[in-house]
Design a protein that fits this description.
Elements (H helix, E strand, L loop, with lengths): L7 H4 L18 H78 L4 H30 L3 H12 L16
Helix pairs in contact: 2-3, 3-4
């Protein structure tokens, strides 16, 4: 650090350590001092401006880092949710595969379920045709509904259920 120059030092000759004036006299031009002072002020203003610019840049860099961390956090959250959803979807697909297989077995000719259903339907249809035939035959010989029912049941080998008691026959 340099010692500031006082105004009385400008015009006076510099002295040596012994106190005697030196042969060379140094005079400082006041214009040069003003120019130096002005340049010093400009340099200080530049340093302050650069410092402020550096602070702004640091703040922007910090904001970018924070935003990046937030985006990474969001991305990680989405990744974990997708992973969980994919696992759930795979489980549903496995469950649906069995159901789809059963549906295909029951709706495709040649499938065990399809063939069993076809057989049951054929048996029911034959039973209905037989019952209609027996009803037609029994109608020729029956005069009452009770006789018709007994005739059809006998022909079809059906055991009749006992008649439900009427409200007047209920036990007391």
């Amino acid at each position: 650090m340099t010692t500031p120059i006082a105004p009385h030092d400008i015009d006076e000759p510099a002295s040596s350590d012994s106190g005697a004036p030196e042969e060379h006299s140094h005079k400082v031009d006041p214009g040069i001092l003003r120019d130096l002072l002005e340049e010093s002020r400009r340099l200080r203003a530049d340093v302050v401006a650069r410092s402020e610019t550096q602070r702004k840049f640091t703040r922007m860099a910090l904001a970018a880092v924070v935003v990046t961390i937030m985006l990474l956090g969001i991305q990680l959250t989405i990744l974990l949710q997708n992973r969980r959803t994919s696992a759930e979807t795979r489980a549903v697909i496995r469950e649906n595969a069995s159901t789809s297989q059963q549906i295909a077995d029951c709706t495709t000719a040649g499938g065990r379920c399809f063939e069993e259903g076809s057989k049951r339907s054929a048996e029911r249809t034959q039973g209905q045709i037989r019952a209609q035939t027996e009803i037609a035959v029994c109608q020729r010989f029956s005069t009452t509904e009770d006789q018709l029912r007994k005739c059809v049941s006998s022909a079809l080998n059906v055991v009749e259920a006992p008649a439900a008691p009427s409200a007047g026959d209920a036990p007391r």
